């Protein structure tokens, strides 16, 4: 169903590919150099082998005993496919968490993001439930904040761009945590590398802005950090990760098969944040919330709710946004004439267009100074759908349009 507003274009809907886990890749699809790089990244140790031909790798924590893999250094080695096949089978059968993470990196070439929270462990190294929940909550919010920054740059997003940012996260895979205080996410290069790049740059910009504030007392560096992806949403994610911990670290490792993206560094240390950073992060978040301006908009949407206190005068309306702003719904107050037009448009199955200012207060969910309501023509299929929706909620709209409460 396609809307045809009188002006402007509709928000495009992009099909989102999903990364599928279907077992290890075929040996012929594996680059031995990439496999070696992933093994090294995940703590495997090379312990001998024929130089220039193959190496013997053992998993972390075994001191050379137990499982080992023979991995060719290149496909020039005559038996490279056989060795790769045996190595892939051994990884698939291994109970080592790092083995599955290596397989994920081979199957879905991904940038890897790691979080660590330094917290006291429970009995026998077990982590309290709340520690793991806090780690996952902070990590997800951080990914969402950086996904938002791939859509636009803002100090505070509120409800804006949430739908497209959340869709970007659908391709991210979660690795097995070796312990309660760590977590790994695999960000597929093909669909979500901009997310990993934005996170990498935003973390360093946030760290530099915090250091600047703690050294000089000035918050100016946070203004420039917005361009790198720092926002209130990111500061809130960092607060979640650091609060109640001795510190938190975040690292981004680039997919060996894709190389290092432009304007990013390879092999850098994790970015660290400590409890001493919390006051600055809270101040920065409040500053972003306070200073993000409202924006003029012209929105096309369908009426979902109408309410006023009597049969005359202004009334409140809720619209489902079709075009004009990257938010799913908005609320607005209309004068008597515009309220009447909005009600009539809905009764005949038409969206409306309205102009005003999308207010940052409340998360960009309200339009102030709304006016100029006009019906918008749509195709027959969409009009039929709207009329069906009206019939399902006819009593509500009859009450709303007559002012009965």
TrEMBL record:
Region listing for Disordered, in residue ranges: 1-28, 47-66
Superkingdom of origin organism: Bacteria
Protein name according to UniProt: Uncharacterized protein
Annotated organism of origin: Streptomyces adustus
